[in-house]
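Might I ask for a little of your time on a matter of protein folding? The record follows directly beneath this note:
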Amino acid sequence: MSVIKVTLPYGEIPVTGKQVSFVAPCNCIETTGLQIDGEFYTVVDTLCECVTGIGRRWDTGAIVSVILDVEKKLAYLSGGSSSRGTVVTLTVDGWVPGTDGKYVQTVAVHGVTGLDTQVVVVDVALSDTDASADQAMISAFALVASNKAIPGDGEITFKAAKIPEVNIQINVGVF
C-alpha cells in the first residue's frame, strides 16, 4: 500500500473544511491515504467509507480534490474532474526580470488558453528518493507558490520574488 504525498503552498496550513487539490501521480489502486505536510489523512467518500484506491476513480494525471477534517484526520473526496494535469519544469536559467520587480518564467502547457482557462498550481513534484533534493525543491517552490500563475495561449507564466537556486518540477492542473 502506498501513500500520496501532498505539499501545500508556502504559508498555507491544513484546516478543517479546506479543499486540497492535487494531480493523481499514478492509478493508485493500492493507496492507503494522503500525507499532507507530514500528517496522514485517511481518504473517505461522502458516506465516510474508506477509499483504498483513488485509481479506481481517476487515472494518472487527473485532478483529485479532497476536503480536510483535521481533527479526525480524514480527507473527504469532493469529486473528480476530467481535467488533466501535467508536470512542468522551471529551470534556474529560465528566469528573467519582469516588469513588476519579480522574476518570471514562461513554460509551454498544451491546452491552456489565456481567455477562459483557470490554472491551479497544485503541488511540487517530489522525487521521494532524495530527501535533501526534495527539501531544496520545496523551498524553491515556496518562492513560486506565493504568486499566481498566469495562463496564456498554450503557456503559463510563473513569478518569483527571487530566482530559485534549483530547478523546480511542478504539477499543474488545468481546469
Summary: Residues 2-82 form one domain. The two ends are 29 Å apart (CA to CA).
